[in-house]
Amino acid sequence: MRVRTTIAGAGLCLAVALTASCSSDPGADEKKSGDSIVLGFSQRRLAGSDWWKTLLQGAQDRAKELGVSIEVTDAGGDTVKQNSDVDTLITKGSTRSS
């Protein structure tokens, strides 16, 4: 159950981030602050799944269109590692925004 929640949460975060970036000028905040936008994308496992690979490719393509960077982590099926990856992405984001 926790794995499904984690995966659903990661997918929801990605969807919200991409949707929000579609509705505004992606460079507006960057122009004001000088910071670049980096989207963290944590995956439980990419290998062996065409569906996840396609999702990742779509996210990378959309990020490129919007002029933002995407940082992908692959936990290799290890949910503990994925939780650590998410914590790392959050920490990196907080240091970039300060």
Automatic annotation (TrEMBL):
Show the SUPFAM superfamilies listed in the entry: Periplasmic binding protein-like I
Q: State the InterPro entries in the record.
A: Peripla_BP_I
Domain of life of the organism in this record?
Bacteria
Q: Which PROSITE patterns match?
A: PROKAR_LIPOPROTEIN
Put simply, this protein is called Sugar ABC transporter substrate-binding protein
Organism per entry: Luteimicrobium album
Q: What is the lineage of its organism?
A: Bacteria, Bacillati, Actinomycetota, Actinomycetes, Micrococcales
